[in-house]
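Give me structure tokens for this 306-residue protein.
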Amino acid sequence: MTVTRILAALALVAPLGSAIQAQEGSSPAAGLRLEISSAGTAFDPSDLIIVKVQFVNSSDKPIDLLLSPDLPGCVSLYYQGPAIRRTLRKQFGPLTTSEAYRVKLNTGERCQTYPMVSVGFYDQRDSATGEVRTLFKTPDLGEWQVWAELGTVKSNVLKFTCEEQRIDAEVRSLFGSETWHRMAMGEKLDKESFDRFRDFVFSGRPAGQKDVMGHLVGISCANDSDNELAARAFDAALQSGGSNWPKSSHRFMLARVRAHLKQFDEAVRQLDQIDASELPLGFARRFQKTREEITQARDKAMGGGR
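Here you go.
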């Protein structure tokens, strides 16, 4: 499971260490609240819907969140639209990590992640075999609703309007393609399809969700140990002007690949511009450690660590 694989599980651990599995229909830790928000309320049929999911401890005791892609309990995103009934998407947006770890929330504290939804996907059951297939089509215009659930805890419901916006035809074809939406949901692409997205990221052409494409292309390049291309992609995400994800997330990944390239001064410069409070779960946990490691590597390269 790579860094680009979408988060599939977020179970709970009781304050005293006994596990609470957030099975469907069960009650997670008392006092945990889910809140979701979004930067906008309208989207083009070619767009992904990107939301911010916050986990808030409203109790008078600490809550430990156990994050793991392999646990049966999970936070799930749901959506429904004009012709789509309540649909479960257990896949969570990629700005997290595949490693299992705990996040402790004290009273009043919150942490967040930034999942995205492609409402073009829907499930269809074969009447003869009972097999369920996930298909894709251009989303219907009109009102859509998105919310999150963890066991019996349900977040607020966000309402979005799907409406055609003024977008270049080529850009709409690229960002509205099933291939791009499958990549955004964590599927690995063939080289020809990936190269098409990579070339657009480096083209200098504008697009409303280019920061998302740049970030995912960067992660894929980093996973293939092509840190030069990864650095270019994360920089393109930063320069795109998009605000679908926090710029600090792009800077965090850019700092890591710059460090791999032994460009330590540039890596530290990116880290200095990061607001750690806006980082998603996986990045926030690793931020301080990454900063220390890169600073030590820079000092050693300059002769100060001997």
